[in-house]
Amino acid sequence: MKAALNLIFLFISCVSMAQQVKITIQESRAKDTISKHIYGHFAEHLGRCIYDGIYVGEENKIIPNTNGVRNDIIKALKELQIPNLRWPGGCFADIYHWKDAIGPKDQRKHIENLSWGNIRENNAFGTHEFLDLCEQLGAEPYLAVNMNSGTVQEAMEWEQYVNNENGSSSLTDLRATNGRKKPWNVKYWGIGNESWDCGGHMTADYYVNLYKRYATAMTSYSNTKKLYRIAVGPGTPDYEWTETVMKNVPARRIEGLSVHHYSVFDWSNKGSSFEFTDNEYYKTMKRAWFMEEFISKNDEIMNKYDPEKRVELIVDEWGGWYETMPSGGGLLYQQNTIRDAMIAGMTLNIFNNHADRVHMANLAQTVNVLQAIILTKEEKMILTPTYHVMNMYKVHQDATLLPSKIESNVTYGSIPAVTISASKNNDGKRHISLTNVDISKSLDVEITIDKLKSATAKILTSGKAQDHNTFDNPNKISPVDFKDFKIKNNKITLTIPPLSVVVFYEN
Ligand code: AHR
After folding, report:
1. How many angstroms separate the alpha carbon of residue 26 from the centre of ligand 1?
2. pLDDT at 9
């Protein structure tokens, strides 16, 4: 208790008296594009993410669906302009055999989900269902191959099954028999998942040798987009792993390096997702802010071997992770409060600002698991505060990053109160996203930006960090217009409320 009070006191005493934050948008330094894939998602066969989440089954007459996928979820994901979806895991990918989940549903093999709760998996949602869903969403699929209990042959055949021309082999005949004549043309392929842990507890050297076998066997067919192979990177500050991969994998066999980082302050006691102390709030934000260091240090090592930044960083698992809700909802089901909106706002700003190296990121996980953007309960569905941040920030997708320089900020130990990123889209319109992680104080902010005449703004905020949407009160937290700002002489001045995410949209 005493330690907790000391920590809070330290945070408070670090706040400068003026509380003035000064930022300059440096448009003349603009050169990088913020890949839309930074706004990607991740869906695993875990808890109620796929079954009783995204997929309710073709036979379901109560919940409106298309090919078994909830229509309300399809609509919500389309609204986000979801750029990509990673599947089938996570840890599940390393026990997954794709051939178990194709063909007539009543003939599919039932397996035990050894990664998540040992439940029976009937494989009703397989390759066809997933890739058809991505087509409906207009999202790029990102498939993770089984590198632990699977084989190189199995991965090679999966790729052939989904990507090769019709009639090129018996695998493409099989695809046609199963109802799909033309290939899906899948570009993104993850080779392994957390191979240092659930993916096989490998050493980096062992992983690299195995990776090279997969990456050599998995080839781009003449009819496909060039294959984008993603190697496993670290999920902790194990930068030796990054070094080993970058040093030993030939440049022509790797396109991306994946890293994972969850904002967990204590893995043995992750705390409640909606009943937490101020101290726990700041500890979570500190872990979220670690993403900045994690990306910078990985980038530094990658620069040694790849200064042209040809190999891109893929943060394919990120988000808040708390104790599973005791009241049910499935494995790793958690509530999503304004704290999660702050994690999302801050993290997306970090990704945007590292657009020169970060190509893709996948929030864990889309529906009913971890920092979900959507929660479901029978026919009801709610959009979480994190969903709203993704929606407010989607203007940054494929826009040009406008570097910003923070000249003064308010800090809490190592955490900056205000984070920012800015971009300019193809129509020349500029957008600025800001967060104020302070739990109780408004901050005065001045942003210098050339030739800005007028803009509108939206804010997502709430009185208490624990506030969240519920099935009875689904719109408690949703974005509203923000008017507390002035634009004059190339400056935006605003007072940003505590616990808030604000986005400016140039008119
Ligand atoms: O997202 C949940 C799990 O977290 C994933 O399956 C695994 O890759 C990570 O440890």
Report:
1. 38
2. 41
